[in-house]
Design goal:
The structure is a homodimer of 279-residue chains. Chain A is an alpha/beta fold and 279 residues long. The first copy, chain A, folds into 2 domains: 154 residues, Rossmann fold, CATH 3.40.50.1860; 114 residues, 3-Layer(aba) Sandwich (Rossmann fold), CATH 3.40.50.1860. Chain A is 48% helix and 16% strand. In chain A, the strands form 2 sheets. Chain A has a 6-stranded parallel sheet with strand order 4-3-1-2-9-10, sandwiched between helices. A 4-stranded parallel sheet of chain A has the order 6-5-7-8, with helices on both faces. The radius of gyration of chain A is 18 Å and the shape is globular. Chains A and B meet through helix 8 and helix 9 of A and helix 8 and helix 9 of B.
């Protein structure tokens, strides 16, 4: 590091990405695409998933433990790639890690939706937990008073993504079945928000169901854009021209993480690529 | 209780039924049908599900905590209505609760399959965790050396059952897709074991996929039969002619438990029907 400015040294530190499981790998993948020179360290709290059924106090505690484990790895920014943790624990994490920037997935998704369809009719596809917390509803409402927001819990889409059955007639008929009551109630969305980190894998089936004129907002891509902007603003971009490194951590189940996670990352993973950590 | 013999008083004690979530309600329902006069107390450890991704030591600890909570309610028998806990913790629970009888779901299912198709080709439909533990494989092999056993992880069927999409074209096409590689590899089962407590809800779709000549072994029904037999043997049947009572306990999420569990029990449940307990 001799001769480096502090900024350049800080820039070489990794971005930490945290999720309750493998879903956040879609956000990691978006970060890799947007910021190919950044080092990334991903932590999936697979031993304690799903977060959606846990109490807010437990979720905050788990998220803070995960954030501290990532902080020990010298991260320069934390991306909370989990809708439940973003909804519940973002403020607590921001305080705990200050002055490190902390970014969730809900706010970037809501901002992108409002920008894509001002005064629009937004349909948020999410898990039961995210719908119950109403985080997108609040985040969009704060940005656009004219917007109408409908939230739809689609648990089967998580199972579909994890099983890797992401396109074809089964995926399309499941998406269509979830959308049927929305259509029946006369709601005609002009923007669909993929409010679960698993759902970008199903984008093709979702587009097939809602039609090509509807804006699809993928919180993975928009979160990566916000992360890039915040790093540039803080002078923390990695100035190297080499491809950034990737470290994958999980709290349990390396074999399953490798099998399912490989699908999310679009590359083959082996169990030995995953480091098991204890929080 | 004055004037009662000890046996009659003991008979009025409830049967405890334990599962990691709502799936075990299919076993509870089978017990209600088989033993309508028995009082039943069900505990779903919804705060810590799924057990399948946890280590054996954690599963045993959780199961023992749940069993002790049920023991405090004066149970006369414990039914472990969870394939993962049955595979991992049955011996530990038997020792902990002795002399109370403890029954799991794997052994009754395996015995029923061997009895239905001696020397047969068994296909076990289960979760990833149960397949990984190989419990049905071992339990059938110990009873029938001629038997061939194939185990198939079908995670999507759990999501289907919880969503209540138990019949119709989506359920049937998902079951058919899981079975396709089995057929392609030339395996032609003459017995299908529903090796997950969620799967009896999907029996119709499974029968449609495998054909009517194949024996379907439902561990819920066979476990209830074993429970009835063990109670009769021990002189612990409730001699009352009144319908037995039902107490539902969960460790988290009464609203979701009521909504999904009501589907499993075939009766409407409200959140206030579920008592939340802390283990």
């Amino acid at each position: 590091m001799i001769g480096d400015s502090n900024g350049a040294a800080a820039g070489r530190r990794p971005i930490g990405v945290f999720d309750s499981g493998v879903g956040g790998l879609t956000v990691l993948e978006a970060l890799r695409e947007r910021l190919p020179h950044e080092h990334l360290v991903y932590l999936g709290d697979t031993a304690r998933l799903p977060y959606g059924t846990k109490s807010p106090a437990s979720i905050s505690r788990y998220a803070c433990q995960a954030a501290m484990a990532l902080q020990e790895r010298g991260i320069k920014m934390l991306v909370v790639a989990c809708n439940t943790a973003s909804s519940v624990a973002l403020d607590a994490l921001g305080k705990r890690l200050a002055p490190l920037p902390v970014i969730g997935v809900v706010e970037p998704g809501a901002a992108a939706a409002v920008s894509a369809r001002p005064g629009g009719t937004h349909l948020v596809l999410a898990t039961e937990a995210t719908v119950r917390l109403g985080a997108y509803f609040k985040a969009i409402g704060e940005r656009d008073r004219e917007a109408r927001v409908h939230e739809l819990a689609c648990e089967m889409l998580v199972a579909l993504a994890e099983e890797g059955w992401t396109d074809g007639p089964i995926a399309e008929s499941i998406v269509a079945r979830y959308l049927q009551p929305v259509r029946d109630s006369g709601v005609d969305p002009d923007c669909v928000i993929l409010g679960c980190t698993h759902f970008p894998l199903l984008a093709k089936a979702i587009v097939a169901a809602v039609g090509a004129g509807v804006a699809i907002v993928d919180s993975a891509g928009t979160t990566a854009a916000v992360a890039a902007h915040r790093l540039a603003e803080a002078g923390l971009l990695n100035e190297s021209n080499e491809r950034g490194g990737l470290t994958l951590l999980a709290t349990d189940g390396a074999t399953r993480f490798a099998r399912v996670g490989g699908r999310f990352l679009g590359q083959r993973l082996d169990a030995c690529d995953i480091e098991i950590v204890d929080l």
